[in-house]
Amino acid sequence: MTALFSAEEFLEYCAALTDAALARRLPAASALPERLHAAMRYGVLGGGKRLRPALCLAATKALGGDPAVAVVPACAVELIHAYSLIHDDLPAMDDDELRRGRPTTHIAYDEATAILAGDALQAMAFEWLAEQGNLSAEVRLAMVQTLARASGSQGMVGGQAIDLAAVGQQVTLAQLEQMHRQKTGALIEASVSLGALTAVPEPDLRHQALASYAAALGLAFQVQDDLLDIEGDTSIMGKTQGSDSARSKPTYPVLMGKDGARRYLNQLLATCQQHLAGFGPEADPLRGMAEFVVTRRY
Amino acid sequence: MTALFSAEEFLEYCAALTDAALARRLPAASALPERLHAAMRYGVLGGGKRLRPALCLAATKALGGDPAVAVVPACAVELIHAYSLIHDDLPAMDDDELRRGRPTTHIAYDEATAILAGDALQAMAFEWLAEQGNLSAEVRLAMVQTLARASGSQGMVGGQAIDLAAVGQQVTLAQLEQMHRQKTGALIEASVSLGALTAVPEPDLRHQALASYAAALGLAFQVQDDLLDIEGDTSIMGKTQGSDSARSKPTYPVLMGKDGARRYLNQLLATCQQHLAGFGPEADPLRGMAEFVVTRRY
């Protein structure tokens, strides 16, 4: 990678940009109803890599667009991601008490507030996309449609449902892959699509190349997540080590072996880079993000 | 009312139209993930008055528009309403086991599936609005924005949060009114706004008159709901009699007395009709709906 800054630096830059925009745009914790708004801010502003916003901004850059225009769409994707984590952590779902080293939202507040905070964050994501003034109505509408599809029953939420149903079940690699394509892949692909739409309103071959990149990246992200889950250090990951395999959720290392999963991860990285072959240095942030995703330790 | 059919007939007609469109557009219960899609259909297609869709169609008609064009927006509002009921019934929220005479979604399925079904229905509402092809991108975007605001923390979900916080608390009439304006009023107002937008894209004085009508109607709906809750017959209401007052939620009859609440209801009806004074017979369905809302027994 020949970029002026590393992937980590790019991620940090995007995270700072996103965090600032989120903190500014989210209703103040003093706005009524206070407890709800405080919980919404807690669930969104508790750190996190901001990988999806960074992908959105990097995709804009790859198509020659102005990343500043992509900040609100990037934040909208992060609102969806944050709401899904809040609901995923609920007792009826994954029942997690710790996220990014802090109590989960339903622990810090209460279950009802956590459910409502997630619901309100989802609505807010579409509100922000719709009112993003720098872009044409057609582009904003395409973004609403893309994000709604990626979030819904054929996307992220569908993946969560498949995941829940898979606990304690024997699943095939194909089923595992379908689950991840929806559960994490759909939103990662939407991040890249939204960024691409802000730069080039009419989908073209470059959009397709970026979509293929994003699909491979989404899987790579999950394979590395599974590997970190069996190797990871709780103090870095901020969640209980081995928590997925402990609840006998299917994982790549279980189905492919650890070495097989690692080989697959490298294949996916190569696939990501191949899809960027037609791009110049403007796609270096996307290249760096792929490297980051497969080498990250957290 | 000089219309060719009664308010009940108009409601039945709209409900049939909405039910058919919802049944056709919702993913089949056989579509993967099956349990999620089955729960989504269960939560949406379990009857209900379809008051919000009817208001949407009636508002379109009042502004000289074609109700057929408003069917998808009407369905989108109903998806939001249905998701809010599914989440509202959860054990961590109102903990209701019966809704419209049937087991609530988390009882018929399970809590996790109910949470996810609600989440997916919300996303689907915005997806449907965005892809509604007969309307301009600007109008569709205005509808997304209107529905998102009405659904979120400053609208419906905010009202639910205020409601939960009010259990067992002393609240003033002003606080009760604010809670209802958000909890049920915001979505009722959005129903009318969306219908109006399909007919007349640029908000004008008629939009304002309809918005004022909707605001009064939303409150009337709630006052009547509270009255039915202390008088109602479980077999008609399909929920446990007195369930709100039993959990010492604040209600209009508690704060104003039963007669006071009834007087207020009639005032609100008069206000609704006044805001429609400038309209001709094309607003008769809206007039009939107001009469229906204050006289309904279920």
Task: Tell me the layout of helices and strands.
The structure is a homodimer of 298-residue chains.
Chain A: H1 7-25, H2 34-44, H3 51-62, H4 71-88, E1 98-99, E2 102-103, H5 105-108, H6 111-131, H7 137-151, H8 156-166, H9 173-199, H10 205-231, H11 234-237, H12 243-246, H13 252-256, H14 258-275, H15 284-295
Antiparallel strand pairs in A: 1-2
Largest interface: A-B, 51 and 51 residues
Q: Helix content range of the residues of chain A, please?
A: 55-70%
Task: Give the number of DSSP strands of chain A.
Answer: 2
Give the integer mean of the pLDDT values of chain A. Answer: 91
Largest beta-sheet details of chain A: 2 strands, antiparallel
Number of helical stretches of at least 4 residues of chain A:
15
Strand content of chain A: under 5%
Look at the structure and name the CATH superfamily of chain A: Farnesyl Diphosphate Synthase
Oligomerization state: homodimer
CATH architecture of chain A: Orthogonal Bundle
The CATH topology of chain A = Farnesyl Diphosphate Synthase
Q: Which shape of chain A, going by the Cα principal axes?
A: globular
